[in-house]
Design a protein that fits this description.
The chain has 167 residues and is of the alpha+beta class. The protein has two domains: 103 residues, PH-domain like, CATH 2.30.29; 52 residues. A five-stranded antiparallel beta sheet has the order 1-2-3-4-5, with helices on one face. It has a three-stranded antiparallel beta sheet with strand order 6-7-8, covered by helices on one side. A hairpin with a 2-residue loop joins strand 7 and strand 8.
Length: 167
């Protein structure tokens, strides 16, 4: 799962802490393999053109294709650097979203008035999970898969119930 509940044993620590991030289907090591295989496959037809003028006509397109592959995979890595942090304390719940371009978005509310909702079909994605409180409704884990969001919903509901029952 691309999220984890952090252990909180200290007395002044949050009652629950959750970190969420997008799933990485291609690790950096796989990126090296993709680029190496792509370059090798590009090289095979160009080897037959060694010594001819046609090589110089095709070479810029081949290098452009490799450059575009590199650029868009790197862009995907950069866009996937989203991190959402949810801190649930007895008197406050805080959600912070760290965007890949350095921006941050914050939301906080009293956990006793916060509700967790799942929108099976009405959200922008199936099983859309939101937190509602302090006059706002915010999304959480929208980048998770369709199967992971209901599990997150259940875990969030349980964590909020624990805090509400002890508060």
């Amino acid at each position: 799962m691309p999220y984890e509940w952090m252990p909180t044993d200290a007395p002044d620590s949050p009652q629950a802490e959750l970190h969420l991030w997008p799933f990485r289907s291609l690790p950096r090591r796989g990126f090296v393999w993709v680029m190496g295989i792509g370059f090798s496959m590009m090289l095979i037809p160009l080897l037959g053109l060694l010594g001819s003028i046609a090589l110089w006509w095709l070479l810029p397109f081949a290098l452009g294709a490799m450059g575009a592959l590199w650029f868009f995979i790197e862009k995907s890595y950069k866009d996937g650097e989203i991190l959402e942090e949810l801190l649930i304390q007895r008197d406050r719940i805080t959600l912070t979203r760290h965007d890949p371009r350095g921006g941050e978005q914050h939301w906080n509310a009293n956990p006793h008035w916060v509700t967790v909702e799942i929108h099976k079909r009405s959200g922008p994605v199936p099983n859309y999970v939101t937190l509602k409180g302090n006059g706002r409704e915010v999304e959480i884990g929208a980048f998770l898969s369709e199967d992971e969001r209901p599990k997150l919903y259940e875990e969030l509901r349980e964590a909020l119930l624990r805090v509400k029952s002890f508060g």
